[in-house]
Amino acid sequence: MGIRLTDTTLRDAHQSLIATRMRTRDMLDVVAELDKVGFFSLEVWGGATFDASIRFLNEDPWERLRALRERVKHTPLQMLLRGQNLVGYRHYADDVVREFVRLSVKNGISIFRVFDALNDVRNMELAMKVAKEYGAHVQGTICYTISPVHTIEGFVGMAMELERLGCDSICIKDMAGLISPEATTRLVRAIKRRVSIPLDLHSHCSSGMAPLSYHAATLAGADILDTAFSAFSWGTSQPPTESIAAAFKGTKYDSGLDLEALYEIGEYFTALYSKYRGLFTAEATRPNINVLLHQVPGGMLTNLVSQLKEQNALDKLGEVLREVPRVRADLGYPPLVTPTSQVVGIQAVLNVLSGSRYKRVTNEVKDYFLGRYGRPPGRVDEEVKKLVVGDEPIINGRPADSIDPELEKLRESGRKLGILRKEEDLITYALYPQVAMKFLRGEAKEEVIPSLTMNPLSPAEVPELPMEFAVDVDGEVFNVKVSTVASKTIEIGKPEKREKPSRGAVIAHIQGMVVAMKARVGQKVKEGDVLAIIEAMKMQSEVRSPLSGTVRKILAYEGEIVNSGDAVAMVEPEEGM
Ligand code: CO
Hints:
Blueprint: E1 4-7, H1 9-18, H2 24-37, E2 41-46, H3 49-57, H4 61-71, E3 77-81, H5 94-107, E4 111-114, H6 125-133, E5 137-143, H7 152-164, E6 169-174, H8 181-194, E7 199-203, H9 210-220, E8 224-227, H10 241-247, H11 259-276, H12 282-285, H13 290-294, H14 298-310, H15 317-330, H16 340-353, H17 363-369, H18 382-389, H19 407-417, H20 423-431, H21 433-440, H22 450-453, E9 467-473, E10 476-482, E11 505-507, E12 512-517, E13 524-525, E14 530-536, E15 539-544, E16 549-554, E17 561-562, E18 567-573
Parallel strand pairs: 1-2, 1-8, 2-3, 3-4, 4-5, 5-6, 6-7, 7-8
Antiparallel strand pairs: 9-10, 11-18, 12-14, 12-17, 13-16, 14-15, 16-18
The structure holds cobalt (II) ion.
């Protein structure tokens, strides 16, 4: 049998290259043609597309799915689902998972690619079971990574367990583009020996090896490869659909796909490329073996760079890059994929910037050590664990077992807010309460595509324009402001906050968004009390009171972006202190 192809142009490709900004209207003109090609599936939904739609495009992701379904009559539509994290960044309660999967099937998803960042199958089971109940195809997914605790035997064992759990196919998800041709051959052979359901290889061209690994996978017996149309391929995206189909033409691995038809569709995407070209960056489009040297995927690297730039600490990049693998080792070698890539990345930044390892930790790192993400692949460092969580009890069971049902409460508050017009709205609200509220109220605006507003684009001019855009960290989108003029930093915080901190100033130690302001004017606080929570790269860290006293001023509001060193509140010391 020939190799089958899953085309990812409408999901992973634009997520990896242009921070998930492809509009639904640009998809609708071509999906009927995509449907005729004979792909194994079209990956069109999930991952970051849900978040990006409501956050940046003012588009309803459910409507996108329905519109695609109406035009695709023959090819299964596929989505990427982060197990119990669905399309968000934390574990949701079981009732949210059930309802999300039900509505996804109802609106058109036929294949669920389900993974967990720690490869902890307990975090995947419920989503897989519900998808099966609704008659969907479940693709159980193994996150591929390289570490002292990840072995071929371990991956094969997971594949066998996924088959036992009723999966219809298996995916090796090489999200960072790490897998070498030789490793591919060994892994694919080993899995095919023990597992009878079809096997898919999903890789990225980040290190440049993916096309070679796809060849190796095909020869070793893989059944499906993930590709994207050439204009949206290479770099941090998948290998090109047209080239991979052409490579096997006339061999026993021939995909049977019509190259003429692929060429025609390729032309459409090439035209579309010029519309979005202002969003493509050199970093995302060329291979970089950094990922093999530091185990820092390309997208994460971009994000670390902008984080450090915001903190005026770009000179610390080398140190941070060395710190990332150390933090990863402390955490028992989680694969670096959403959300663990952010958990590790931001902690590495904190360890370097605070000058002392784990002096400051994010809530997520705490949760990780408490077992709230699941079972780490290897042993965590006991000393670090002690430092981070002290004697707090560790969860050993399935993390979602300790999460209370969420939907009823949300239904009530959503009703009060008047934002629930259709049943899908409740899930949108459950996934991203803050962003969804704005979107569902009709207050969101479609972001402008840079290249459309720039007058005749001369390549020399483009880099001079400071832009606000988002970067992709392994599949997640983060808003960053980037100036390509290295000396120019963009001030986000209010100038008065940058004054010399006085004794009672409650100082933010990292640039990010204030997600909770806990201090109230007149409130009595003790030294060390948590007065605000700041979110950076989706990770939350606490801002504590430097002394005991009374809160006199609040200097930041929830939703505001503050800089490292900004005062978010002022505390007047107690008498006599
Ligand atoms: Co991917």
